[in-house]
Amino acid sequence: MPPTQNPSAPGPTHYDLLEVESTASVSELRxxxxxxxxxxxxxxxxxxxxxxxxxxxxxxxxxxxxxDPISRNRYDSQLLQPPGPISPSGVPAQPPTRTSTSRxxxxxxxxxxxxxxxxxxxxxxxxxxxxxxxxxxxxRGAAFVRTPSWWPEAVAAAAAPDSPPDxxxxxxxxxx
Length: 176
Hints:
By secondary structure, this protein is mainly α. The chain is built from six helices and two strands, in the order αααααβαβ. It has helices spanning 14-18, 26-40, 49-67, 69-80, 113-140, 153-159, and strands spanning 145-146, 170-171. It has a two-stranded parallel ribbon. α2 (26-40) runs antiparallel to α3 (49-67). The protein is elongated.
C-alpha cells in the first residue's frame, strides 16, 4: 500500500516533489532528482531567483530523505500515521516538533574513472618530482642530511661516530 499524505501535514510529499511513485527505487529517485535539479537550479531556470532557490532547496531535502533507506522508512511511517487527537477548536492537535535549521545534506558518491585517473596522475607527479629532486641533489654532490648549526659538536659526533666527516650523507661540519 503506497503511503498517502497525512492530512495534517501541509504541502506536497517528498514523492510529489520528486514526481515519483512511493515505490520508486534508489536509481529512479536519483534520475528524477537529476532531471528536476536541472529544471529548478537557480543558475539554469527561468523562474524568479527566490522561487528557484526555494524549489531547489525543497528538492534537495526531499532527495536527501528518500535516498537514505533509514530516513525514508521513518518518513513513510510518518505519512501513514493518522492525524493526532482533535483539539476543542476542531483542529487536529499537533505534537511538538523539533525545528532545526535546514542546511544542505552532502550526497556521498563513488569517485568516477576520470577522478581516479586524476589522482593517479597527481601521485605520479609527486613521486617523479621527489625522485628528480633527489637525483639532481645527488648529481650536484649536495648533502642529504646536514647537522643543524645550533647543534653542539659533541652531539653531532655522538650521533654518527662511524661516519667519516666528509661523507656525502652526513655533513659533520656545516657550511657557514
